[in-house]
Amino acid sequence: MKAFTGIIALALLLTGCAGEKGIIDKAGYQLDVRRAAQAAYPRVKVLVIHYTADDFDTSLATLTDKHVSAHYLVPDVPPLHNGKPRIWQLVAEQELAWHAGASFWRGATRLNDTSIGIELENRGWQKRNGVKYFAPFSAAQIAALVPLAKDIITRYQIAPYNVVAHADIAPQRKDDPGPLFPWQALAAQGIGAWPDPQRVAFYLNGRMPDEPVDTASLLDLLARYGYDVTPEMTLAQQKRVIMAFQMHFRPARWDGVADAQTQAIAEALLEKYGQR
């Protein structure tokens, strides 16, 4: 009888533990989650913005095949349901999507491992007479993107300088989302980085915006901000890095030429957000 009473008491004790706050019952074991480690950090640190360079149906098919993926796809004109724009989630945020490819940002590689990717349905660029012309983004698409991006940034406490273009993290391969993406307007809503105009003017220091500057000095600034700059880069590769920066922060001129305005913007960004 005493043995039976002991078994009952043990069962009641275990039952009490299972119902205790911070104790989770699993099949064959229990988890105690009452003590969380302080040295724990979210996997997601970067938000990468892309364009699909195709229509919605083709983009959806591409992003759901076996070769490439992204967490979200935002249509050019999202359909409204109960007054809200609909966005397609293709990969759960806790899972890795293959959207960044070979990439580098602020000393980190393998950005797929630490980022969330948002694809925007957009035709990308077409070349006419040797000149690239980029397709604009619709107001409805950007309006749908804003709350999604804000939610992601808040969930993972993503720093402004880690909201980036695909071109920022892979400038030798990518142009997206291009110079028509409204980075400045989004930064005003808390999405991404943008330099303070008065500090840009301070660093411009009376120079003409298109005054040539030393390319190596500019590239040093861009490397300190986060771009992949290496000593063995060719002149064409250097130009691609400068062009990616300009498409993001100086969209009025993105020819890849090192000039005073680009340099002043880079200095103002480093002052505001620090270096990697």
List the SSEs and their pairings.
Blueprint lengths: L1 H17 L4 E4 L2 E4 L13 E6 L4 H8 L8 E3 L5 E2 L2 E2 L2 E2 L14 E2 L2 E2 L5 E6 L4 E4 L2 E4 L4 H18 L6 E3 H4 L13 H5 L9 H8 L10 H11 L9 H15 L10 H14 L3
Parallel strand pairs: 3-10, 3-13, 4-10
Antiparallel strand pairs: 1-2, 4-7, 5-6, 8-9, 11-12
Strand order of the largest sheet: 7-4-10-3-13
The CATH topology of the largest domain is what?
A: Lysozyme-like
- Please give the count of helices: 9
Count of DSSP strands: 13
C-alpha termini separation: 70 Å
* Helix percentage range: 25-40%
Shape: globular
Label the CATH architecture of the largest domain.
Answer: 3-Layer(aba) Sandwich
Instruction: Identify the CATH homologous superfamily of the largest domain.
Output: Peptidoglycan recognition protein-like
| Average pLDDT over all residues | 93
Percentage of residues in DSSP E strands:
15-25%
Number of domains: 2
Rounded Rg: 24 Å
Describe this structure in words.
The chain has 276 residues and is of the alpha/beta class. It folds into two domains: 142 residues, Peptidoglycan recognition protein-like (Lysozyme-like, 3-Layer(aba) Sandwich); 77 residues, PGBD-like superfamily/PGBD (Muramoyl-pentapeptide Carboxypeptidase, domain 1, Orthogonal Bundle). It is 36% helix and 16% strand. The strands form five sheets. A five-stranded mixed sheet has the order 7-4-10-3-13. A two-stranded antiparallel ribbon has the order 1-2. Strands 5-6 form a two-stranded antiparallel sheet. A hairpin with a 2-residue loop joins strand 1 and strand 2. Helix 6 crosses helix 9, helix 7 crosses helix 8 and helix 7 packs parallel to helix 9. The radius of gyration is 24 Å and the shape is globular. The N terminus is likely disordered.
